[in-house]
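FORM 12-B: Structure-to-Sequence Request
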Protein backbone atom coordinates (compact mmCIF):
# COMPACT_ATOMS: atom_id res chain seq x y z
CA UNK A 1 0.00 0.00 0.00
CA UNK A 2 1.29 3.45 -0.81
CA UNK A 3 -0.44 6.35 0.88
CA UNK A 4 -0.18 10.06 0.38
CA UNK A 5 1.40 12.97 2.20
CA UNK A 6 -0.33 16.18 3.18
CA UNK A 7 1.90 19.10 4.13
CA UNK A 8 0.08 21.28 6.64
CA UNK A 9 1.03 24.76 7.81
CA UNK A 10 0.49 24.73 11.57
CA UNK A 11 0.66 28.52 11.79
CA UNK A 12 3.25 30.40 13.80
CA UNK A 13 2.18 29.59 17.31
CA UNK A 14 -0.90 28.83 19.32
CA UNK A 15 -2.75 25.74 18.08
CA UNK A 16 -5.90 27.64 17.12
CA UNK A 17 -4.06 29.45 14.31
CA UNK A 18 -4.13 26.30 12.16
CA UNK A 19 -6.71 26.36 9.35
CA UNK A 20 -9.93 24.34 9.53
CA UNK A 21 -8.74 22.33 6.56
CA UNK A 22 -5.46 21.60 8.31
CA UNK A 23 -7.27 20.49 11.46
CA UNK A 24 -9.58 18.19 9.46
CA UNK A 25 -6.66 16.57 7.66
CA UNK A 26 -4.82 16.07 10.96
CA UNK A 27 -7.83 14.21 12.32
CA UNK A 28 -7.43 11.66 9.49
CA UNK A 29 -3.67 11.16 9.83
CA UNK A 30 -2.00 7.83 10.59
CA UNK A 31 1.40 9.41 11.15
CA UNK A 32 2.39 13.03 11.82
CA UNK A 33 5.97 14.15 11.19
CA UNK A 34 6.30 17.51 12.93
CA UNK A 35 8.80 20.34 13.44
CA UNK A 36 10.16 21.78 16.66
CA UNK A 37 8.20 25.02 16.45
CA UNK A 38 4.70 23.53 16.35
CA UNK A 39 2.44 23.74 19.42
CA UNK A 40 2.21 20.48 21.41
CA UNK A 41 -1.52 21.24 21.87
CA UNK A 42 -1.99 20.31 18.18
CA UNK A 43 -1.68 16.69 19.26
CA UNK A 44 -5.24 16.88 20.54
CA UNK A 45 -6.33 17.24 16.91
CA UNK A 46 -4.80 13.86 16.01
CA UNK A 47 -4.74 11.61 19.10
CA UNK A 48 -5.13 8.58 16.82
CA UNK A 49 -1.88 9.27 14.95
CA UNK A 50 1.69 8.33 15.70
CA UNK A 51 3.58 11.60 16.27
CA UNK A 52 7.23 11.75 15.24
CA UNK A 53 9.41 14.77 15.98
CA UNK A 54 11.73 15.60 13.09
CA UNK A 55 12.67 19.16 14.04
CA UNK A 56 15.98 20.68 13.12
CA UNK A 57 17.23 24.22 13.20
CA UNK A 58 19.31 26.11 10.67
CA UNK A 59 20.73 25.36 7.26
CA UNK A 60 23.80 23.29 7.96
CA UNK A 61 21.95 20.07 8.65
CA UNK A 62 21.67 18.62 5.15
CA UNK A 63 21.86 15.04 6.44
CA UNK A 64 18.91 15.95 8.65
CA UNK A 65 16.95 16.98 5.59
CA UNK A 66 17.86 13.77 3.75
CA UNK A 67 16.73 11.76 6.76
CA UNK A 68 13.40 13.61 6.84
CA UNK A 69 12.88 12.96 3.12
CA UNK A 70 13.58 9.27 3.67
CA UNK A 71 11.22 9.10 6.64
CA UNK A 72 8.44 10.72 4.60
CA UNK A 73 8.82 8.17 1.82
CA UNK A 74 9.08 5.25 4.25
CA UNK A 75 5.94 6.19 6.17
CA UNK A 76 3.94 7.01 3.04
CA UNK A 77 4.71 3.50 1.77
CA UNK A 78 3.36 1.92 4.95
CA UNK A 79 0.40 4.17 5.83
CA UNK A 80 -2.66 5.63 4.13
CA UNK A 81 -2.14 9.23 5.26
CA UNK A 82 1.04 10.89 6.45
CA UNK A 83 0.87 14.49 7.61
CA UNK A 84 3.99 16.62 7.44
CA UNK A 85 3.25 19.40 9.92
CA UNK A 86 5.36 22.52 9.51
CA UNK A 87 5.54 25.75 11.48
CA UNK A 88 3.96 28.78 9.82
CA UNK A 89 3.33 28.15 6.14
CA UNK A 90 5.04 25.21 4.41
CA UNK A 91 5.86 27.31 1.33
CA UNK A 92 7.82 29.96 3.23
CA UNK A 93 11.37 28.93 4.27
CA UNK A 94 10.02 25.48 5.00
CA UNK A 95 12.25 23.23 2.84
CA UNK A 96 9.09 22.23 1.01
CA UNK A 97 10.87 22.00 -2.32
CA UNK A 98 13.23 19.23 -1.19
CA UNK A 99 10.43 17.22 0.40
CA UNK A 100 8.09 17.55 -2.60
CA UNK A 101 10.93 16.48 -4.88
CA UNK A 102 11.66 13.42 -2.75
CA UNK A 103 8.00 12.38 -2.84
CA UNK A 104 7.66 13.01 -6.57
CA UNK A 105 10.79 10.92 -7.13
CA UNK A 106 9.21 8.06 -5.20
CA UNK A 107 5.90 8.41 -7.05
CA UNK A 108 4.00 9.45 -3.90
CA UNK A 109 1.10 11.89 -4.15
CA UNK A 110 1.30 15.08 -2.11
CA UNK A 111 -0.98 17.96 -1.18
CA UNK A 112 -0.21 21.27 0.58
CA UNK A 113 -2.48 23.04 3.05
CA UNK A 114 -1.35 26.63 3.69
CA UNK A 115 -0.78 28.19 7.09
CA UNK A 116 -0.23 31.62 8.65
CA UNK A 117 3.39 32.60 8.16
CA UNK A 118 5.32 34.35 10.95
CA UNK A 119 5.42 37.72 9.14
CA UNK A 120 1.62 37.85 9.05
CA UNK A 121 1.24 36.81 12.68
CA UNK A 122 3.72 39.52 13.68
CA UNK A 123 1.77 42.13 11.71
CA UNK A 124 -1.45 41.02 13.38
CA UNK A 125 -0.02 40.93 16.91
CA UNK A 126 1.43 44.43 16.58
CA UNK A 127 -1.43 45.89 14.52
CA UNK A 128 1.08 47.09 11.92
CA UNK A 129 -0.28 46.36 8.45
CA UNK A 130 2.42 45.18 6.04
CA UNK A 131 0.98 47.21 3.18
CA UNK A 132 0.04 50.88 3.50
CA UNK A 133 -1.92 52.95 1.10
CA UNK A 134 0.53 55.16 -0.73
CA UNK A 135 3.70 54.25 1.16
CA UNK A 136 3.76 50.45 1.38
CA UNK A 137 3.03 48.95 -2.00
CA UNK A 138 5.17 45.85 -1.78
CA UNK A 139 6.24 43.29 0.81
CA UNK A 140 9.24 40.97 0.68
CA UNK A 141 9.79 37.92 2.85
CA UNK A 142 13.56 37.55 3.06
CA UNK A 143 15.90 35.26 4.85
CA UNK A 144 18.79 37.04 6.45
CA UNK A 145 20.94 33.92 6.20
CA UNK A 146 22.57 32.55 3.10
CA UNK A 147 23.09 28.83 2.59
CA UNK A 148 26.72 29.30 3.67
CA UNK A 149 25.59 30.84 6.96
CA UNK A 150 26.55 34.41 6.03
CA UNK A 151 24.25 37.30 6.79
CA UNK A 152 22.71 39.23 3.94
CA UNK A 153 20.42 42.23 4.15
CA UNK A 154 18.55 43.50 1.14
CA UNK A 155 16.04 46.09 0.14
CA UNK A 156 13.65 44.67 -2.39
CA UNK A 157 10.31 46.08 -1.22
CA UNK A 158 8.72 48.93 0.75
CA UNK A 159 8.31 46.50 3.65
CA UNK A 160 10.99 43.86 4.10
CA UNK A 161 10.42 41.09 6.63
CA UNK A 162 13.56 39.20 7.62
CA UNK A 163 13.30 35.62 8.88
CA UNK A 164 16.07 33.74 10.67
CA UNK A 165 17.87 36.89 11.79
CA UNK A 166 17.15 36.57 15.51
CA UNK A 167 20.69 35.63 16.50
CA UNK A 168 22.27 38.38 14.43
CA UNK A 169 20.27 41.53 15.00
CA UNK A 170 23.39 43.62 15.57
CA UNK A 171 24.95 42.40 12.32
CA UNK A 172 21.67 42.99 10.47
CA UNK A 173 21.57 46.55 11.84
CA UNK A 174 25.03 47.17 10.39
CA UNK A 175 24.12 45.79 6.99
CA UNK A 176 20.79 47.56 6.49
CA UNK A 177 22.20 51.04 5.68
CA UNK A 178 24.46 49.52 3.01
CA UNK A 179 21.37 47.89 1.51
CA UNK A 180 19.79 51.32 1.10
CA UNK A 181 17.72 51.75 4.28
CA UNK A 182 18.23 55.09 6.01
CA UNK A 183 19.26 54.91 9.68
CA UNK A 184 15.90 56.48 10.61
CA UNK A 185 13.82 53.72 9.01
CA UNK A 186 11.38 52.17 11.51
CA UNK A 187 12.00 48.54 12.48
CA UNK A 188 9.57 46.28 14.34
CA UNK A 189 10.95 43.16 15.99
CA UNK A 190 8.58 40.39 17.08
CA UNK A 191 9.49 37.11 18.71
CA UNK A 192 7.13 34.18 19.23
CA UNK A 193 4.44 35.90 17.16
CA UNK A 194 1.11 34.17 17.57
CA UNK A 195 1.95 32.82 21.04
CA UNK A 196 0.60 34.18 24.33
CA UNK A 197 4.13 35.22 25.35
CA UNK A 198 4.83 37.22 22.16
CA UNK A 199 7.38 40.02 22.61
CA UNK A 200 7.49 43.18 20.51
CA UNK A 201 10.00 46.02 20.37
CA UNK A 202 10.32 48.99 18.04
CA UNK A 203 13.49 50.63 16.84
CA UNK A 204 15.17 52.65 14.12
CA UNK A 205 17.74 50.98 11.92
CA UNK A 206 20.41 52.87 13.88
CA UNK A 207 19.47 51.26 17.22
CA UNK A 208 18.22 47.83 16.13
CA UNK A 209 21.12 46.12 17.93
CA UNK A 210 19.41 47.01 21.22
CA UNK A 211 16.76 44.37 20.45
CA UNK A 212 19.23 41.47 20.72
CA UNK A 213 18.91 40.79 24.43
CA UNK A 214 15.13 41.02 24.62
CA UNK A 215 14.50 38.46 21.87
CA UNK A 216 17.49 36.18 22.51
CA UNK A 217 16.77 32.50 21.95
CA UNK A 218 13.28 33.05 20.54
CA UNK A 219 12.07 32.72 16.92
CA UNK A 220 12.06 36.30 15.67
CA UNK A 221 11.00 38.23 12.59
CA UNK A 222 12.32 41.71 11.82
CA UNK A 223 10.06 44.02 9.81
CA UNK A 224 11.79 47.00 8.21
CA UNK A 225 10.21 49.95 6.39
CA UNK A 226 6.62 50.99 5.79
CA UNK A 227 5.05 48.02 7.59
CA UNK A 228 7.05 48.66 10.77
CA UNK A 229 5.40 52.01 11.45
CA UNK A 230 2.71 52.27 14.14
CA UNK A 231 -0.66 53.34 12.81
CA UNK A 232 -1.40 56.93 13.83
CA UNK A 233 -4.59 57.68 15.74
CA UNK A 234 -7.03 59.74 13.71
CA UNK A 235 -6.82 63.28 14.95
CA UNK A 236 -10.43 64.11 14.21
CA UNK A 237 -13.61 62.19 14.89
CA UNK A 238 -14.94 60.13 12.01
CA UNK A 239 -17.71 61.93 10.16
CA UNK A 240 -20.61 59.59 9.62
CA UNK A 241 -22.66 60.87 6.70
CA UNK A 242 -26.29 61.44 7.66
CA UNK A 243 -29.16 59.73 5.88
CA UNK A 244 -27.28 56.61 4.84
CA UNK A 245 -29.37 53.44 4.93
CA UNK A 246 -28.24 50.75 7.39
CA UNK A 247 -26.23 48.00 5.73
CA UNK A 248 -28.38 45.00 4.84
CA UNK A 249 -27.70 42.04 7.09
CA UNK A 250 -27.29 38.72 5.40
CA UNK A 251 -28.00 35.48 7.18
CA UNK A 252 -27.35 31.93 6.20
CA UNK A 253 -30.59 30.23 5.15
N1 LIG B 1 7.63 28.27 7.60
C1 LIG B 1 7.82 29.22 8.69
C2 LIG B 1 9.23 29.78 8.70
C3 LIG B 1 10.28 28.75 9.05
S1 LIG B 1 11.91 29.41 9.09
C4 LIG B 1 6.77 30.33 8.54
O1 LIG B 1 6.09 30.39 7.54
O2 LIG B 1 6.65 31.13 9.46
C5 LIG B 1 12.13 29.74 10.80
C6 LIG B 1 12.11 31.24 11.05
O3 LIG B 1 10.76 31.70 11.01
C7 LIG B 1 12.63 31.65 12.42
O4 LIG B 1 14.04 31.80 12.41
C8 LIG B 1 11.95 32.99 12.62
O5 LIG B 1 12.61 34.00 11.87
C9 LIG B 1 10.61 32.75 11.93
N2 LIG B 1 9.55 32.36 12.90
C10 LIG B 1 8.94 31.17 12.98
N3 LIG B 1 7.98 31.19 13.95
C11 LIG B 1 7.98 32.44 14.45
C12 LIG B 1 7.20 33.10 15.44
N4 LIG B 1 6.23 32.48 16.10
N5 LIG B 1 7.47 34.40 15.71
C13 LIG B 1 8.46 35.05 15.05
N6 LIG B 1 9.22 34.48 14.09
C14 LIG B 1 8.99 33.19 13.79
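FORM 12-B RESPONSE
SEQUENCE OUT:
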Amino acid sequence: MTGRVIFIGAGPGAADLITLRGARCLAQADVVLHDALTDPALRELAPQARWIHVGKRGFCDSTGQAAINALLVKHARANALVVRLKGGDPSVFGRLEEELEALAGAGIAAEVVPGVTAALAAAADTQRPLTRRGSGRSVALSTAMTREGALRAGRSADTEVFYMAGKQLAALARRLPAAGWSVDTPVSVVSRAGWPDVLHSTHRVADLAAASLLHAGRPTVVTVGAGARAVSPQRHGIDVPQGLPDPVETRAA
